[in-house]
Amino acid sequence: MTDCIFCKIINGDFGTEFVYEDDNAVVFKDINPKADVHLLVVPKEHVADLNECSEELIGKLMSVVKKVTVQEGIKSFKTLINTGKDAGQEVFHLHIHILSGNIKF
Ligand code: AMP
Ligand code: ZN
């Protein structure tokens, strides 16, 4: 989607460094971290939220959570998916938050 910030990041428009990347997803640091480690797992395909996400894709994204936490040596962490404006979703391109250490929410 042309006006989607995460699509632009995936497209490399801002030169964002990816902590992890595979065929399905990228992982990058949250710009406004709410913990010592705050990563976002983002599908390459534009999917607005969990309501729009296939079972297959969410499975792949959870697999990425496992891979990137092992890669980064993160053993204790919280995962979070906000779905919908009323739940606090601000970016309408599905993402899984990974938070570890001094979690602020
Ligand atoms: P949510 O409220 O679940 O939609 O979370 C959106 C998250 O995206 C927030 O934690 C923001 O800090 C983060 N965010 C917004 N823009 C960027 C960006 N350009 N790079 C990295 N993270 C971002
Ligand atoms: Zn998008």
The portion of residues assigned to helices is 10-25%
Number of helices: 2
Oligomer: single chain
State the major sheet. 5 strands, antiparallel
The overall pLDDT average reads: 97
CATH superfamily: HIT-like
> SSE order, as H and E?
HEEEHEE
Q: What's the number of domains?
A: 1
Question: What is the number of strand segments?
Answer: 5
CATH C-level name? Alpha Beta
Q: What is the overall shape? A: globular
Helix-strand blueprint:
Layout: H1 5-10, E1 20-21, E2 25-29, E3 37-43, H2 55-72, E4 78-80, E5 96-100
Antiparallel strand pairs: 1-2, 2-3, 3-5, 4-5
This protein binds adenosine monophosphate and zinc ion.
Adenosine monophosphate (AMP) is lined by residues 5, 30-32, 40, 82, 88-91.
Description of the molecule:
The chain contains 2 helices and 5 strands, in the order H-E-E-E-H-E-E. 23% of the residues lie in helices and 21% in strands. A 5-stranded antiparallel beta sheet has the order 1-2-3-5-4, covered by helices on one side. The protein is of the alpha+beta class. The model has no long low-confidence stretch (mean pLDDT 97). It has helices spanning 5-10, 55-72, and strands at 20-21, 25-29, 37-43, 78-80, 96-100. It starts with a helix and ends in a 5-residue tail after the last strand. The protein has a single domain (5-100), classed as HIT family, subunit A. It is globular, with a radius of gyration of 13 Å. The structure holds adenosine monophosphate and zinc ion.
How do you describe this structure in short?
23% of the residues lie in helices and 21% in strands. The protein is an alpha+beta fold.
